[in-house]
Design a protein that fits this description.
This protein is of the alpha+beta class and about 325 residues long. Helices cover about 25% and strands about 35% of the residues. Helix 1 (about 15-25) runs parallel beside helix 8 (about 310-334).
């Protein structure tokens, strides 16, 4: 059983930002991530093709920085070779992780103790502190004991993990996170569209050319595009198979472009919890219980005009500052 000062459930941008900040402050922090690697909104995917491997960003096509604190962090990451400038969109610089999107969270994960492929199934408060359980080969068993728990997972998963009748449950009850289908298509010739196209039509939210992102390696010699369906279209076909969705999205893309497409390779992924909610936001950017239980994530930030990556960072940053402040005040009183 692991014993730690603070346990963080979720190793996306919000969870890792918080974990890094608390670790630097001298706290013992442990993270658990149900996936085999970090990523979340900054996930990447690689598939094999007879001509070579094909890599593309499975989450956000890129991200911007509107606040000074996130701009400073991007400057730091850029100096360390973790992110780089890609292009300008609507007058704003757009950045990407290099050599792939997931490089950002992988870099962040190096600075903290993360247990991947670990799904926390239950949290329970006892006299000694918070017990966290996970599913092992022998059934559900205790994984860790801690005094403070941060839930940095999507709202529906966080809601399910919160103990019954916990006060924070009411704050998440009406939060809705939208699903989204994402498709990669590799073509033998480029499309006559900008590198990043937003709101192409009602069914397609964005199309991005992966080849031109900085430090991307395209072994197969193909033109790789990431196609993000709109949340409305995704909701309509949310229970369809990837094979059906692929055919439908390619049809929509052909219709909008008015050309035929010679698809050399493709991949389809469903993000069950993708786009941020239109409700449930809070000025603080996080939720704090009186029992050492906290919640953070992009869906809690009141500033709706910020991108998901920046919102997640700011939420994790704000909660880390709050926890550090509370810890210092308790130390002074003690």
């Amino acid at each position: 059983m692991i014993k730690t000062d603070i346990f963080v459930v979720g190793a996306g941008m919000a969870g890792l930002t918080l974990a890094n900040e608390l670790t630097v402050s001298g706290m013992a922090v442990t993270c658990a991530e149900k996936a085999r690697g970090s990523g979340g909104r900054l996930s990447s995917k690689r598939i094999e093709h007879p001509k070579g491997s094909i890599s593309f960003d499975l989450g956000a096509s890129g991200f911007t920085a509107k606040t000074n604190v996130f701009k400073a962090k991007l400057d730091e990451w850029q100096k360390r070779g973790v992110v780089d400038f890609w292009l300008e969109s609507d007058g704003e610089p757009v950045y990407v992780g290099v050599p792939r999107s997931s490089s950002v969270t992988r870099y962040m994960a190096e600075n903290t103790n993360v247990h991947f492929a670990t799904r926390i199934t239950k949290i329970e408060k006892q006299d000694e502190g918070w017990y966290l359980y996970h599913q092992s080969t022998e059934g559900e068993e205790v994984f860790a004991l801690t005094q403070q728990v941060v839930l940095a997972s999507p709202a529906p998963q966080t809601f399910d993990l919160l103990p019954n009748n916990h006060p924070l449950k009411a704050s998440l009850e009406k939060v809705e996170i939208f699903s989204q289908w994402v498709m990669m298509v590799a073509l033998d010739r480029p499309l006559d569209i900008p590198e990043l196209t937003h709101k192409m039509c009602k069914s397609i939210e964005s199309v991005s050319l992966e080849n031109n992102k900085p430090k991307r390696v395209t072994e197969a010699g193909l033109y790789v595009y990431a196609v993000q369906a709109s949340t409305q279209w995704s909701d309509q076909f949310i229970n369809e198979t990837p094979e059906v969705v692929e055919k439908l999205l390619i049809k929509e893309l052909k219709k909008e472009l008015g050309i035929d497409l010679d698809v050399q390779a493709s991949y389809v992924h469903r993000w069950l919890y993708s786009q941020g909610s239109v409700n449930g936001h809070y000025d603080a950017g996080f939720l704090a219980g009186e029992d050492g239980l906290y919640v953070c994530g992009d869906y809690l930030l009141s500033e709706l005009k910020l991108g998901g990556v920046e919102s997640a960072f700011l939420s994790g940053k704000a909660l880390s500052q709050y926890i550090i402040q509370q810890t210092n005040e308790l130390a002074r009183v003690g």
